Amino acid sequence: MVASRAIGSLSRFTAFRILRSRGYICRNFTGSSALLTRTHINYGVKGDVAVIRINSPNSKVNTLSKELHSEFMEVMNEIWASDQIRSAVLISSKPGCFIAGADINMLAACKTPQEVTQISQDAQRTFEKLEKSTKPIVAAISGSCLGGGLEVGVPAAFDMMLTGRNIRADRAKKMGLVDQLVEPLGPGLKPPEERTIEYLEEVAVTFAKGLADKKISPKRDKGLVETFYLTELTAYAMTIPFVRQQIYKKVEEKVQKQTKGLYPAPLKIIDVVKTGIEQGSDAGYLSESQKFGELAMTKESKALIGLYHGQVLCKKNKFGAPQKDVKHLAVLGAGLMGAGIAQVSVDKGLKTILKDATLTGLGRGQQQVFKGLNDKVKKKALTSFERDAVFSNLTGQLDYRGFEKADMVIEAVFEDLSLKHKVLKEVEAVIPDHCVFASNTSALPICEIAAVSKRPEKVIGMHYFSPVDKMQLLEIITTEKTSKDTTASAVAVGLKQGKVIIVVKDGPGFYTTRCLAPMMSEVIRILQEGVDPKKLDSLTTSFGFPVGAATLVDEVGVDVANHVAEDLGKTFGERFAGGSLELLQQMVSKGFLGRKSGKGFYIYQEGVKDKNLNSDVDSILASLKMPPKSEVSSDEDIQYRLVTRFVNEAVMCLQEGVLATPAEGDIGAVFGLGFPPCLGGPFRFLDLYGAQKIVDRLRKYEDAYGKQFTPCQLLTDYASSPNKKFYQ
Amino acid sequence: MTTILTCTLKNLPSTSKWALRFSVRFLSCSSQLRAAPAGQTKSKKTLAKPNVRNIVVVDGVRTAFLQSGTSYKDLMPHDLARAALTGLLHQTSVPKEVVDYIIFGTVIQEVKTSNVAREAALGAGFSDKTPAHTVTMACISANQAMTTGVGLIASGQCDVVVAGGVELMSDVPIRHSRKMRKMMLDLNKAKTLGQKLSLISKFRLNFLSPELPAVAEFSTSETMGHSADRLAAAFAVSRLEQDEYALRSHSLAKKAQDEGLLSDIIPFKVPGKDTVTKDNGIRPSSLEQMAKLKPAFIKPYGTVTAANSSFLTDGASAMLIMAEEKALAMGYKPKAYLRDFVYVSQDPKDQLLLGPTYATPKVLEKAGLTMNDIDVYEFHEAFSGQILANFKAMDSDWFAQNYMGRKTKVGAPPLEKFNNWGGSLSLGHPFGATGCRLVMAAANRLRKGGGQYGLVAACAAGGQGHAMIVEAYPK
């Protein structure tokens, strides 16, 4: 949970809040080495108000490091000791960031739970001091303030502590977390960001003064938290042990259901809250710091921190700035993918042409983009006016008009090589010389597509994941001929679209599809062996996959899965064998294409939440039934048969140089294929759980099924030398 | 040139200081004479352009501007507009049949009289052969009406145009909700009783919640006062500065009223009520009193309050514009020339009210004048904070370079020439009618105080703005 909490930011709002008892702005201050000169914090006095400015050097964000903490304590002690100062304002000098949370590196550097517990306890002490401060302190927050918490004891706070979600400032105000909002200013006599912070400080200073002079009372309007949850009745109810037990139980159930017990943090938080309420706050704080220490040492924590670092890496363009910025984009094919790509482009301000062959197809795609944007309006993430302005970046058309201005064309037509060849030739006839041609394909080798190109150095693969507006990953595929500038351009566009990007070498199935294919083959075999799709789904989700394996096939599309399996099966032969393709073929012939056709392994109906199994598949399964091998068919074995094939293929990709780094492999697997985040990706998984254990399992399954489970060379290398890690 | 010559010669016999000044200007090629007591020299002697018709304001009038909900509250917008039009007829004695065209500006439209110009013209006794249309451009609607007239005359399509504006904030169209409207429209089409009943059965109580005219900017959903408060904060305009400026506006307006300088007001006998002759929103207060008010938009720490904002106003204005030769042929003594004008627009979120800042240097450049040439400034005062923010923006090289793409600032107008007879803060601001008031105030101030060039500027919702140069008609 650490990783997901440490990133993100408050929206366009700034806010400030008055510290008072039981209100934290940020935790996990630590205290140890005292520095002579202060680099993170400085303060000045305005009248009788001390203004404490936080500014971590050489960093875009302020994080809670040991240095920052000790300097902060120094400053606070001076302030408390000074007769001249009557109140204080806490503010960041960085536009858009107050404190982004605890310094992950600081936590990662801790070797033992005790160290982390120490950090946490120091922080608690600081906060205790702040709480008991006789001089009012106003925190002026602009931008991200995460990991900053709520105090225990209010049931409504549970939800937020548990999911670590980022709260928009106006919501925070409604919930009673902050006292006042300051809206960002436009241009004045200085750059807007600079003046906004100055203004925030001015307002906060006025408030601090008012508090010290007792002109303003720190009592706030009752926020939602209070009005809805702490009405006297609930407050009273919470004093009854029986009611409390019921609430704990409910919360625990809900958490169990959501996390499948794979993430330890939420349950521990409940424990801490329980201890705090039942045994008093001192016990609660002690328990909090200890549990925090334990959590920081878990594999889950290491896996998630690893993912965080990987994601930061994959949000950078290591190919440098492209020679020409892409301003005009054209997308060919207004299907699910094409429209999705168009949507994530127009809302970043890219002028985008969406071209399709038919008016109905185009209309469907335009409607998809509109709906995607309109859903944001419904969630109040966008105003209807902004939606219209964004939508105006989209031009829908049936011809190639305007392509002479395109800087990049992304084709998302049907996965058919001759069709892709046809559009490539058509497009090359109309686009300018500098224009990049990107192909969105999940399996067709890019070099085969580029074979008919006049300018193969401008051809590249951009593999998006469905639904494009939700899936963060973009897999970029370069052939031997693709130029570096073309790659830089594709990465730049992907980053603009908000994607996390891995760049891999061309080859059948690239990286993601190639890892998925053997696992899917195993899925089919498991189904043939008589495990029903529902059971298979629950086995995979309880392992940590966000979507069950059978459901995944339905989501991807049975026909697509079949297409890919056939293609890759031909190339990779026996290693990709397992289940019989017959199953998919028969399903396709009966029109069970998955969610898009309403029927796959499940039946999908609009407005029906609980999906039922498609009983018509039973007869197909029955006709293809294979006897299960009892020695490798326990629930755990089934899970590992799926995962080990995945992991083995991932390592193979690294071995063959399809992947440049293990980090990209992990990011691709987690963000594109839903590999369990708590495991951190296939390579992190091998590091944390031991390559040998995985090889042992593979050998066992190899005995039962043969070559499909043979561990690859690189994997056995790592297994035989236990000190060798993918992440050193 | 001929025009100037005639005018100047015509004026020579007059003994007033002003005539002297103009004659001096006419002869001012000699450097010796340039130091004459009549005032500083101008970059240009006149803004007349070769081969372009000179367009003059013969005269302009307005009803008194009243706070909405007072004496005008039972009227309809066209009633007020009618009062202005009849007043203009009376004041100028223009024969109805020579008026070629009538244009009115308005913002919140009364749905029954969406072309309020036509309804008012008919009711005011103008010829039914004179076409009329209504324009809307938020607070610069009347400016748009005037400049549309200028365009018609300059292009030779018309010789005589009446331009004006009206706003009646005492009554605004409040609609049924969309759901209710839809049901009512469907009911109209329903043929059988069954169809009707099934439609009525869909009725829900929330259908009855009314829909008010938007007070917020459509594109940003931000009210103008909120934006003004942020603008003031962006330019670091303090609450005290704003209150002081508002007090100045009210004090100057009071003085002008007492001295009878607001001569463009025509008396209006409101049916069933007394005759209205005076603006009723002028309330000079004290800084102490003003300081007590709570912020109206950004609570609790904002700086824009009811006392330093313009208030909701009812009022109408009208103006007779002619080609100069036509006016002279009809024996009129025009009050002013309408010269170069510009419209500008910018970001409706953060620069909503900075229209004057953008428009001023542009119109000056177009006319070939500098700030030093301007003798009177008439800016629309939406909020004290807005005016002061505009001053600071106009006086900032940084802003000019970073946001306006200009090398240097244009400079802030000197306060002693600025809105000396009050402004929208004190006189009131009927959205659609203010533009004509600004031009008439500039023209009358030039006549009274003896200047040549006046600069009119205003901001408007949508992030738009306008500026125009008014040149005094030589006496």
Automatic annotation (TrEMBL), chain A:
The record marks 463 as: Important for hydroxyacyl-coenzyme A dehydrogenase activity. The keyword Ribonucleoprotein does not apply. The active site is at residue 475. It catalyses: (3S)-hydroxydecanoyl-CoA + NAD(+) = 3-oxodecanoyl-CoA + NADH + H(+); (3S)-hydroxyhexadecanoyl-CoA + NAD(+) = 3-oxohexadecanoyl-CoA + NADH + H(+); (3S)-hydroxyhexadecanoyl-CoA = (2E)-hexadecenoyl-CoA + H2O. GO terms for molecular function: enoyl-CoA hydratase activity; long-chain (3S)-3-hydroxyacyl-CoA dehydrogenase (NAD+) activity; NAD+ binding. InterPro entries: 3-OHacyl-CoA_DH_CS, 3-OHacyl-CoA_DH_NAD-bd, 3HC_DH_C, 6-PGluconate_DH-like_C_sf, ClpP/crotonase-like_dom_sf, Enoyl-CoA_hydra/iso, Fa_ox_alpha_mit, FA_oxidation_alpha_subunit. Its EC number is 4.2.1.17. One of its GO terms (cellular component) is mitochondrial fatty acid beta-oxidation multienzyme complex. Transmembrane segments: none annotated. Residues 509-604, 641-720 form the 3-hydroxyacyl-CoA dehydrogenase C-terminal domain. Pathway: Lipid metabolism; fatty acid beta-oxidation. One of its GO terms (biological process) is fatty acid beta-oxidation. Residues 329-506 form the 3-hydroxyacyl-CoA dehydrogenase NAD binding domain. PROSITE patterns: 3HCDH (PS00067). The record marks 151 as: Important for long-chain enoyl-CoA hydratase activity. Keywords: Fatty acid metabolism, Lipid metabolism, Lyase, Multifunctional enzyme, NAD, Oxidoreductase. In the central section; belongs to the 3-hydroxyacyl-CoA dehydrogenase family. In the N-terminal section; belongs to the enoyl-CoA hydratase/isomerase family. This is enoyl-CoA hydratase.
Automatic annotation (TrEMBL), chain B:
Pathway: Lipid metabolism; fatty acid beta-oxidation. The keyword Electron transport does not apply. Residues 332-471 form the Thiolase C-terminal domain. Residues 55-325 form the Thiolase N-terminal domain. GO terms for biological process: cellular response to lipopolysaccharide; fatty acid beta-oxidation; gene expression. It is found in: Endoplasmic reticulum; Mitochondrion inner membrane; Mitochondrion outer membrane. It is an enzyme of class 2 (transferase). InterPro entries: Thiolase, Thiolase-like, Thiolase_acyl_enz_int_AS, Thiolase_AS, Thiolase_C, Thiolase_CS, Thiolase_N. Its EC number is 2.3.1.155, 2.3.1.16. One of its GO terms (cellular component) is mitochondrial nucleoid. The keyword DNA-binding does not apply. Keywords: Acetylation, Acyltransferase, Endoplasmic reticulum, Fatty acid metabolism, Lipid metabolism, Membrane, Mitochondrion, Mitochondrion inner membrane, Mitochondrion outer membrane, Transferase, Transit peptide. It catalyses: butanoyl-CoA + acetyl-CoA = 3-oxohexanoyl-CoA + CoA; decanoyl-CoA + acetyl-CoA = 3-oxododecanoyl-CoA + CoA; octanoyl-CoA + acetyl-CoA = 3-oxodecanoyl-CoA + CoA; tetradecanoyl-CoA + acetyl-CoA = 3-oxohexadecanoyl-CoA + CoA. Pfam families: Thiolase_C, Thiolase_N. Coiled coil: none annotated. One of its GO terms (molecular function) is lncRNA binding. Gene3D superfamilies: 3.40.47.10. PROSITE patterns: THIOLASE_1, THIOLASE_2, THIOLASE_3. Its main location: endoplasmic reticulum. PANTHER family: ACETYL-COA C-ACYLTRANSFERASE, TRIFUNCTIONAL ENZYME SUBUNIT BETA, MITOCHONDRIAL. Mitochondrial trifunctional enzyme catalyzes the last three of the four reactions of the mitochondrial beta-oxidation pathway. The mitochondrial beta-oxidation pathway is the major energy-producing process in tissues and is performed through four consecutive reactions breaking down fatty acids into acetyl-CoA. Among the enzymes involved in this pathway, the trifunctional enzyme exhibits specificity for long-chain fatty acids. Belongs to the thiolase-like superfamily. Thiolase family. NCBIfam families: AcCoA-C-Actrans. Heterotetramer of 2 alpha/HADHA and 2 beta/HADHB subunits; forms the mitochondrial trifunctional enzyme. Also purified as higher order heterooligomers including a 4 alpha/HADHA and 4 beta/HADHB heterooligomer which physiological significance remains unclear. The mitochondrial trifunctional enzyme interacts with MTLN. Interacts with RSAD2/viperin. This is Trifunctional enzyme subunit beta, mitochondrial. The lineage of its organism: Eukaryota, Metazoa, Chordata, Craniata, Vertebrata. The gene is HADHB.
